[in-house]
Amino acid sequence: MRDGTPFDFWTSTVIFVGYAIPGFILAILLIILFAGGNYFDIFPLRGLTSENFDELSLFGKIGDYFWHLAMPLAALTVGGFATLSMLTKNSFLEEINKQFVLTARAKGLTERRVLYGHVFRNAMLIVIAGFPSAFVGIFYYGSVLIEVIFSLEGMGLLSYDALIKRDYPILFGTLFMFGLVGLVVHLIGDLTYVLVDPRIDFDTR
């Protein structure tokens, strides 16, 4: 992908729109479009399972779960996906224009070797650094409204109800779980640093 091409223009436009639309607004738009609003009736409006869930086979139950989760997951992940996509694109474009890439091409290396052997390592470090914050934003900040809109019983709605009812043990428990998930994601990010670029060695520090 080259900067300034029609493909770059349209994909960047879609990414900016996905980033600008809040998750709860996108959830309402998805309901209007695909959940029996004014257009299509493809996905269920609310809940995690259908009324005949107990009568379904194992694969039918799995499919029913994914069918009910399609719109909530789409509303939750579009904003974070757009952020990571733009970060990845800008990072790769910045690395491609650097001097060491031009030198590698001048030596006769194939485009695949240049991209995966030289550009990928340096570009992905920035993406890995931005992934934990994007994941935590998807997992926590937008989950409360999405769960309320789609009538899902999840951690976000549980923490909100605990806050309203001043149920402090439940509130602290949900905050602990969110904090634990954030720490695990950051730990995975640090380990991924070493896998992507072995030159990074935390032991020497």
Major sheet description: none
Q: Helical content, roughly? A: over 70%
Measure the end-to-end span. Answer: 37 Å
Mean pLDDT: 79
Structural class: mainly alpha
> What is the radius of gyration computed over CA atoms, rounded to a whole number of angstroms?
22 Å
**SSE string, helices as H and strands as E:** HHHHHHHH
Uncertain spans: none
How large is the count of helical segments?
8
Q: Would you count the extended β strands for me?
A: 0
Which overall shape is indicated by the principal axes computed on the Cα atoms?
Answer: globular
* β-strand amount: under 5%
Structure description:
It is built from eight helices and no strands. With 205 residues, it is mainly α. The chain is globular, with a radius of gyration of 22 Å. The two termini are 37 Å apart. The relative contact order is 0.10.
Chart the SSEs and their pairings:
Blueprint: H1 6-20, H2 23-34, H3 58-96, H4 99-106, H5 111-141, H6 143-149, H7 155-165, H8 168-196
Descriptive tags:
mainly alpha; 205 residues
Short description:
The protein is mainly α and 205 residues long.
